[in-house]
What does this fold into?
Amino acid sequence: MTYKSDFLNILEQRGFIHQCSDFDALDAKLCEGIQTAYIGFDPTAQSLHVGHLTGQMMLYWFQQSGHKPITLMGGGTGKIGDPSFKDKERQALTDESIQANIDALEKTCFQQFLTYGDGETDALMVNNNDWLDELKYLEFLRDYGRYFTVNRMLSFDSVKQRLERESPLSLLEFNYMVMQGFDFLELNRRHGTILQMGGSDQWGNIINGVDLGHKADRVKLFGLTAPLLTTPDGKKMGKTEGGAVWLNKEMLSPYDYYQYWRNVDDVMVGTLLRRFTTMPISEIEKLEALQGQEINEAKKVLAFEATQMCHGEAAAQEAAATAQKVFEQGGVGGDLPTVPVSHDALSSGIAMLDLLIEAGFASSKGEARRLIKGGGVRINDKKVSDEACTVSTDHMNGDSIKISASKKKHALVKVA
It folds into this structure.
């Protein structure tokens, strides 16, 4: 489908469009001049992860199309936690923890994607705690509770699935969708925001805000969602055996981030190039056409471009150079993740099982034993077959020891 607005055309080409509350009206509105859109992020950790990248890139392209993006930090809603498709209530966070997470997110996860400032199209970061914390409960229920019917709230998939699984859904969590709807109304009043975006699992919450704007203030608001990305086996993108793929380099090194993209399934490469790089579509189409072993070249481009987008060009170049040295030249790359050990411990000898766990290659000694039995564990590229193997200073190669689990997982053991 072809649109009049640059923004919707870009999203269409890059696979970001799933649902919209009113395509034609939104398309026309985006052609009238600078508009404002937002996506909400609950500060539940000190980093976003790959699962948040779709929203990041939607805001990026919104700004690149000449509009103003808002990153809404859920300092208020974060105290509740989004119940969408969760089996249990999230652990409550203190005000101090929430603020610490917001501070970390601002520095490490947003400024790489958006330009913040005071200009007309500069991004703005706001905190919904600024208005939610001041609400008087009875007044809020009187003024806005009448616009939300329990019948409709029970119809949303996120709620129905919890009830079908007989998982408790607290009144606190049930209020989340009301709070999110009020966020949209408040952002329209304060900043003229006309569009909320998010993943397809947020559709119900977004539509609540669209409806509330119409009922409370008689304003035309819009909702737009992107399809959720899943791996070929149906799992959400952004999870690995070692946990979430974080955007904060303090929680996941640029090299490991690069390797995540380098190792995606072949059939995902074209989709990911469109979603998470800024490469021209014509170049992406050439890479999509590669077959067989040539698809690895497309994966290298994807890994470099995605890492550059998140961590900068220098980090991407270093990660690519390390990967080439490790995988293509059989060497040791300086950007590999490290496992710090004491000199005394290394002199005495450290069990390989413990190092595999410490490096994040295994979650238990049982899993570490299975890795060794499977023949994938190596010390300085030499196969380990003895489960009782220990690593010591005798294995030092320069100032480090390279340990590996399979062809894709490597780390350096170094004396701290």
About this structure: The chain has three domains: 6-226, 253-328, 338-415. The mean pLDDT is 88.
